[in-house]
Amino acid sequence: MVATPLPAGRPYPLGSSVRDGGVNFALFSAHAERIELCVFDHSGSQEQARHLLTENRDGIWHGFLPGAGAGLVYGWRAYGPYAPERGHRFNPNKLLLDPYAREIVGRFEWRDENYGYPRGHPDGHLALDLRDNGRWALKARVAAPTPVRELHPPHTPLSESVIYELHVK
Questions:
Q1: In terms of Cα–Cα distance, which of 95, 52, 99 is closest to 77?
Q2: How far apart are CA 144 and CA 49, in angstroms?
Q3: Comparing C-alpha atoms, which of 110, 44, 30, 53 is closest to residue 74?
Q4: Residues 7/64, Cβ–Cβ less than 8 Å
Q5: Which of 18, 32, 78, 139 holds its CA 20 to 30 A away from the CA of 153?
Q6: How far is residue 145's CA from residue 124's CA, in Å, rounded to a whole number?
Q7: Predicted TM-score of the model (pTM)
Q8: What's the burial of 16, exposed, middle or buried (CB within 10 Å: 0-12/13-18/19+)?
Q9: 39: Cβ–Cβ under 8 A, 6 or more apart, which residues?
Q10: What is the H or E stretch that residue 147 is in?
């Protein structure tokens, strides 16, 4: 499936967020060379489209999908070096769950397609598995924006208040 490029979007917040007539996507990967957003049907069983995230700021890949909204089911495909000895196991044949997902679609099954290497291969975990796991992999669903609650001051008298200062560094 050919991936169509997405407009830039914003690098934050990470994950998916509904805004401005579409959905913003942002994903961190310091070593990826290419990231694709894979859109699925509502059940997560059939891939419908692929979109290329073309913007990368400080390792955060981001894009904006106009016309999309809450309920969209998606996953990631990451391209990059396959060098297990250096900790890099990029394999675009494997659909990845968004680590920032607020909703997950599907039920995980221990299937051979979900492994990054062919089980039983003489090279063990260093071998590359070329089978696509997209049909069986867990997917993310874009969550509806949480309603903003009106905040009220606590009305605690200053004499009963505790002022606490914290420096992150």
A1: 95
A2: 21
A3: 44
A4: yes
A5: 18
A6: 44
A7: 0.86
A8: buried
A9: 47, 48, 49, 50, 51, 65, 68, 72, 73, 74
A10: none
- Indicate the SS3 state at residue 158: helix
* Amino acid letter for position 95: L
> What is 83-137 written as a DSSP string?
EGGGTEE--TTS-B--TT-SEEES-----GGGSSS-TT-TTGGGSPP----TTTS
Structure tokens at 140: 């993310």
**In one letter, which amino acid is 4?**
T
List per-residue pLDDT tens for the chain, 169 residues long.
899 999 999 999 999 999 999 999 999 999 999 999 999 999 999 999 999 999 999 999 999 999 999 999 999 999 999 999 999 999 999 999 999 999 999 999 999 999 999 999 999 999 999 999 999 999 999 999 988 888 888 888 888 988 888 888 7
